[in-house]
Amino acid sequence: MANINLASEGGVVNSAPQSDSHEFDATKTRTQGQLVLRRFLRHRLAMVSLGVFVFLVLFAFVGPFIWTYDFEDVSSKSYQPMSGTHPLGTTQVGKDMLALLMRGTGYSLQIALIVAALATAIGVTFGALAGYLRGFVDTALMRLVDLLLIIPQIAVAAIVVKGFSGSWYVVALVLAAFAWMQIARITRGETLSLAQREFIEAARACGASTPRIIFKHLVPNMIGSITVNATLAIAAAVLTEAALSFLGLGVQPPDTSLGVIVLENYGQFLNRPWLFWGPFIVLVSLSLAVNFIGDGLRDAFDPRQTKVRA
Amino acid sequence: MIRYIIRRLLISIPILLIGSFACYVLVATAGNPLAEMRFRPGVTEADIKAAEISLGLDKPVVVRYWNWLTDFMSGDWGQSIALGQAKTAVYPAVTDALWTTGRLVIGAELLALTLGVSVGVLAAVRQYSIFDYLATSTAFLMFSMPIFCVAVIVKNYGIQFNNVLESMGLDRWLTTAGPRPGGFSGSFGEVIFKYTGTFLLPTVALMLISFAAYSRFERASMLEILHSDFVRTARAKGISQSRVIFRHAFRNALIPVATLFSLNFGAVLSGAIITETVFGWAGMGTLLVNSVRQFDPPMLMGWLMVTATLVVLFNLIADVVYGILDPRIRLG
Question: How far is A238 from chain B (nearest CA, A)?
Answer without folding.
Answer: 9
